[in-house]
Design goal:
Elements lengths: L2 E12 L2 E12 L3 E5 L6 H8 L7 E6 L2 E2 L5 H7 L1 E3 L12 H12 L10 H4 L3 H10 L15 H13 L5 E5 L7 H14 L4 E5 L3 H7 L2 E6 L2 E6 L1 H5 L2 H8 L4 H10 L5
Parallel strand pairs: 3-8, 3-9, 6-7, 7-8
Antiparallel strand pairs: 1-2, 1-4, 4-5, 9-10
Helix pairs in contact: 3-5, 3-6, 6-7, 10-11
Length: 263
Amino acid sequence: MTAILQTRGLSRTFNGFHAVSDVNLSVQEGSIHALIGPNGAGKTTCFNLLTRFIDASAGSISFQGQDITRTPADAVARLGLVRSFQISAVFGQLSVFENVRLAVQRRRGHSLDWWRSDRALSAYDERTHELLAEAGLADWAEHLAGELPYGRKRALELATTLALEPRVLLLDEPMAGMGTEDIAHAAAMIRQAARGRTVLMVEHNLSVVSDLCDRITVLARGEVLAEGNYAGVSADPRVVEAYLGHGHAGQRKHNSSAGVQHA
């Protein structure tokens, strides 16, 4: 497999605080790769660096073999490195169908002029229906986005992100706030979305990570602590220590063999 997204020595300092320090990351094309770690580990900062929302203090980022370390965020997105966010971002007063169609319009280089005639906008309908079906939202197409249940709203966000036709899809805590049923649905969506794409995700639900991800990078205090498949990293004593802390010394031996899936 070929690396589609790589960093070398990636670092970011805020007023002397090392939020991300010397991170070497290699995401293989066609894989689902998780970036995990305890709160404050630097995961979201890493995402912000990769998508160029903030500048690196040191190091480099390459995407599809091209150095994007200083490339503007909008240009990076047009190259196909596209992210979702933890916070819900949909047009609540528009229908589910209209939300997705706007995203399709934007990808195809047209302004978001939703006041155009239905005939003019119909050119985007076929792709919109395809994305709704992929997200499991075909039966919700005419509902107002603002009235969707939380899990379906996150599905809509994923559909609008997929409308931008990403090569690499970065998902920032896609399961946050979801119940068990919604998590199962979202996991199935991500697996479907990964067909023909690469996914890099930050996720706290380690049972989801175990089920979905081919490779896992663990961050702690802004540095890479461990990397490998789930079985390997979950049994690593350093990972158990990072998740459970010094106060669980009596449990450490058990947890290092059982993994950190319940952390």
